[in-house]
Specification:
The complex is a heterodimer.
Chain A lengths: L7 H34 L3 H16 L2 H23 L8 H27 L2 H9 L4 H16 L1 H14 L11 H12 L2 H34 L6
Helix pairs in contact in A: 1-2, 1-4, 1-8, 1-9, 2-4, 3-4, 4-6, 4-7, 5-6, 7-9, 8-9
Chain B lengths: L1 H25 E6 L8 E2 L5 E2 L1 H13 L2 E6 L5 H7 L4 E7 L2 H6 L1 E2 L8 E6 L14 E5 L3 H11 L4 E5 L2 H10 L4 E5 H7 L6 E3 L7 H4 L3 E5 L4 H16 L2 H10 L7
Parallel strand pairs in B: 1-4, 1-5, 8-9, 8-10
Antiparallel strand pairs in B: 2-3, 5-12, 6-12, 7-10, 7-11
The chains are: A mainly alpha, B alpha/beta.
Chain lengths: ~230, ~260
């Protein structure tokens, strides 16, 4: 334990990085998921096809592979283009690449969740909106989207916890998050059980906080609006 | 007003991009996997330290360039080199023909012997007694596998691990009977702390340790390799290399 003590701030920074990574990637993935879900239930066949392809591809690929593709792929392209043009290009940092990989992939997952939520909405609500003269865009932004989000809240909370844990894969491309830092400390003090045990506590803490926030939001939204009823 | 703000933003971004570009010409980006005490590891403040790190720093000083040394996980270190994120792998890797075919390598930076580590109370005193047993080692270390096959027979079951620590954990758990590794690391981490021993004296034969350990550059980047080799020779000649060996292992490490 005494060997680990000086590394506690180092590990705490890793905990913060993990939190930051998921806190940045998750909202982006929800926005992406909403756009894809709307495209999938929209009128344009081209958009529907594109959305379906996007969801199929990124739900099928392993997260680690997408992580590697994102980091090395982006920089390979940047350096390739830079080399061809004769201008050295700045490189994507591991953090940015990890955010891109997580956002895209969890965008695909959340698109499916949100589409399901959309299916559960009573058609009458959107029709009522149209009947009172709202435009299609207004019906989507004022009626459909909030109801979709509310109906999918439990599943999205679950998805956040998955993202939190999957974000550990970012350690493979060198993001200094909790898993990578525990690995580094374990390499320095040669006590893997202790180091990864501390990391496990860190993840439990973050997941517990996430669940609390979810319960709070869930309870509050439902107390205010009440459940969606079908008549 | 919006337009003006946008112009400033674009100017800042473009200016930034060019600043990065001109900087990239003067500095060399080096990747080291610092999860490997005493070769390269992080200190509590996050700085990299260790034998290999100090060697890279010493050579950079002799070359009179700024080296931007970053901590890159071993799993992706070769991909980082190929993608151009780094120009120089500062973790010493065993020089082999297979690697030379794919990358440009430096001259020998240092040489280590190969050993098999067993538990201290294991009833093993020669390689013969390990025949037919399961052995562990670091994955992607071809010459180490060759060493295992040479000592224990072609059909030996060698399991690859992400790190030597993981292999030794499985040795403790009894899943494997011995761990193949380099004498410097295993001595420092395990034998010196008790509980483990080497089956035999370190093996330095060229067929396994080849040309020893060297640094890796992108294929064809002989310009950088030549500069690094010259600076390395200088560091060996003036005793810097030996001094760094003493700092971490209590003795100079063979440089040829």
């Amino acid at each position: 334990m005494s060997l680990l003590t000086p590394y506690i701030p180092f590990l705490l920074l890793g905990l913060l990085t993990t939190l930051l990574l998921s806190a940045v990637a998750f909202p982006i993935s929800i926005v992406l998921g909403l756009s894809v879900a709307h495209a999938r239930v929209g009128r344009s066949p081209a958009m529907r096809g594109f959305a379906k392809a996007f969801v199929t591809v990124f739900r099928s690929l392993p997260e680690l592979l997408v992580m590697f593709l994102s980091f090395y792929g982006i920089n390979f392209l940047l350096n390739g283009v830079g080399g061809a043009l004769g201008i050295p290009m700045p490189n994507a940092t591991p953090f940015v690449a990890a955010v891109i990989a997580l956002s895209i992939q969890f965008g695909a997952y959340s698109a499916e969740i949100l589409r399901d939520a959309h299916r559960s909405l009573p058609v009458g609500l959107a029709e009522a909106g149209r009947a009172v003269g709202l435009t299609e865009a207004k019906v989507r932004s004022r009626i459909v989207t909030p109801l979709m989000l509310r109906a999918s809240l439990p599943s999205l909370g679950n998805l956040y916890l998955v993202l939190l844990k999957i974000s550990a894969l970012a350690s493979a491309i060198g993001v200094d998050e909790l898993t990578r830092r525990s690995n580094l400390v374990s390499g320095a003090i040669k006590d893997p059980f202790l180091c990864f045990g501390v990391a496990a506590l860190g993840y439990l803490l973050l997941a517990g906080l996430g669940s609390l926030i979810q319960e709070w939001v869930f309870g509050r939204r439902f107390a205010k609006g009440g459940p969606v009823s079908v008549h | 007003m919006k337009l003006k703000a946008a112009t400033i933003l674009v100017a800042a971004l473009v200016g930034n991009a060019f600043a990065t570009a001109s900087q990239a010409q003067e500095t060399i980006s080096v990747g080291i996997d610092a999860a490997f005490a005493p070769f390269a590891f992080v200190k509590p403040n996050g700085d990299i330290s260790g034998y290999e790190y100090d060697l890279v720093v010493a050579v950079c000083e002799k070359m009179n360039v700024t080296c931007n040394i970053s901590n890159v996980p071993w799993d992706g270190i070769f991909a980082s080199l190929e993608a151009g994120n780094i120009q120089w792998i500062g973790t010493g890797v065993t020089i082999s023909d297979a690697r030379k075919a794919q990358y440009t390598m430096s001259n020998t930076v240092y040489r280590v012997g190969l050993v098999m580590l067993v538990k201290k109370d294991a009833p093993v005193s020669s390689y013969d007694e390990l025949k037919g047993k399961i052995i562990g080692t670091l994955a992607s270390t071809e010459p180490w596998y060759a060493f295992g096959r040479a000592k224990l027979g072609e059909g030996v079951d060698i399991r690859g691990y992400d790190s030597i620590d993981a292999a030794v954990l499985d040795l403790d758990a009894g899943r494997i009977s011995a761990v193949i590794g380099d004498n410097l690391q295993l001595q420092d981490q395990f034998v010196s702390k008790g509980g483990y021993k080497f089956v035999a004296e370190p093996e330095y034969a060229q067929e396994f340790t080849g040309a020893g350990r060297g640094w890796v550059f992108q294929k064809g980047n002989t310009e950088l390799a030549d500069k690094v080799n010259a600076a390395l020779a200088e560091a060996v000649a003036d005793g810097t290399h030996a001094e760094i060996g003493k700092r971490y292992f209590g003795t100079a490490v063979p440089a040829k």
